[in-house]
């Protein structure tokens, strides 16, 4: 299948790896490479030290620009932390949430544009124009909808729960603060409705994909589009590949298991998200388990070890979409 327009729902680091692979797949057929629109999670965004920080959008932008820190897994390569040390000395910001100097440049630029009155989607367009990303990046919403985590010790911003407590404080629930009055960013619904294929990246199902789906209008557009919707499992062999996404799944009562996540997303025919679902080879039992669920499932290697391996995953997702 050679779709012209692909929409990807994505979180930060896992989403970015996947989109890089999809871009690499397009580059295998340069004369026919599709237009890719990435709808990114904005639930992790926050104001810190007077600056608007958008972690997932930045993970996507830096990885696609090739300026991300591959070793550490987040932020900019060749980073220094002189400014953060000064902020900590003044008692400003979160000492456990270090922002690198280069990264702070992005946050200052973003905050300046927001204060000039630009909506986030326009800010993202201006920031990412600096690099030839090869895809269109869209925040799921221009509104400030922040993920909060309800715990026995009170309600925390998602980043505080994730980074300071390392998701060790049991989450009782996740809340999208401000979602009631939010709308999808300009272009999001339009891109989904005009897509030939929608791909759900192997991102955190709860606080990345779940947050995008929670923005009013997004689910409706996904239900209405004629494009098949195919997801890729972030769980391999009963474990998340990296990070602590299992803590999020446990909190909402979903097993850390490829088939369980597909059931959680649901079949589009039953009002859910998915037409198709890719699991890793080691989870091939999920193909049987999901037979009759209305979700076409296939098993292929799902390790995003490099852009080429990830391009093969994206190709398998497009084949499943065409089936
Ligand atoms: P975040 O916003 O930075 O947490 O990133 P995402 O939500 O986009 O993605 C996080 C998820 O990516 C994690 O739950 C991992 O399980 C998943 N992930 C990371 N690397 C891989 C990989 O190589 N293969 C698969 N299938 N999933 C991965
Ligand atoms: Ca994130």
UniProtKB/TrEMBL annotation:
Q: Which UniProt keywords apply?
A: Magnesium, Transferase
Q: Which domain of life is it from?
A: Bacteria
Q: What InterPro entries does the entry give? A: CofD, CofD-like_dom_sf, FbiA/CofD
Question: Keyword S-adenosyl-L-methionine on this protein?
Answer: no
Is Transferase among this UniProt entry's keywords? Answer: yes
One term of GO molecular function: transferase activity
PANTHER family, A to Z: 2-PHOSPHO-L-LACTATE TRANSFERASE
Q: Which NCBIfam families match?
A: F420_cofD
The protein, known as: 2-phospho-L-lactate transferase
Q: What is the lineage of its organism?
A: Bacteria, Bacillati, Actinomycetota, Actinomycetes, Micrococcales
- The record's gene field reads cofD
């Amino acid at each position: 299948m050679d779709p012209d327009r692909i929409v990807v729902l994505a979180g930060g680091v896992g989403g970015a790896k996947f989109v890089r692979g999809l871009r690499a797949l397009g580059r295998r057929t340069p004369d026919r490479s599709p237009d890719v629109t990435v709808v990114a999670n904005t639930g992790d965004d926050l104001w810190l030290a007077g600056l608007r920080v958008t972690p997932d959008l930045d993970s996507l932008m830096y990885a696609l620009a090739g300026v991300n820190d591959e070793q550490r897994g987040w932020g900019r390569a060749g980073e220094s932390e002189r400014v953060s040390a000064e902020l900590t000395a003044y008692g400003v910001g979160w000492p456990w949430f270090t922002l690198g100097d280069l990264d702070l440049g992005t946050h200052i630029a973003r905050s300046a544009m927001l204060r000039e009155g630009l909506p986030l989607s326009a800010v993202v367009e201006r920031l990412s124009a600096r690099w030839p990303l090869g895809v269109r990046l869209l925040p799921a919403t221009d509104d400030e909808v922040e993920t909060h985590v309800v715990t026995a010790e009170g309600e925390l911003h998602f980043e505080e729960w994730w980074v300071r407590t390392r998701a060790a404080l049991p989450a009782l629930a996740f809340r999208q603060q401000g979602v009631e009055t939010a709308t999808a960013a300009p272009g999001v619904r339009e891109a989904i409705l005009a897509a030939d294929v929608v791909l759900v990246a192997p991102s955190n199902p709860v606080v990345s994909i779940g947050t995008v789906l929670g923005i009013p209008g997004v689910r409706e557009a996904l239900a209405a589009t004629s494009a098949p919707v195919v997801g890729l499992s972030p769980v391999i062999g009963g474990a998340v590949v990296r990070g602590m996404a299992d803590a999020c799944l446990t909190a909402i009562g979903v097993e850390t298991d490829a088939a369980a996540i597909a059931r959680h997303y649901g079949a589009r025919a039953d009002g859910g998200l998915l037409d198709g679902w890719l699991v890793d080879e080691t989870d091939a039992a999920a193909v049987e388990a999901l037979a009759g669920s209305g979700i076409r499932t296939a098993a292929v290697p799902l390790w995003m070890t490099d852009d080429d391996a990830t391009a093969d995953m994206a190709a398998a997702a497009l084949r499943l979409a065409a089936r």
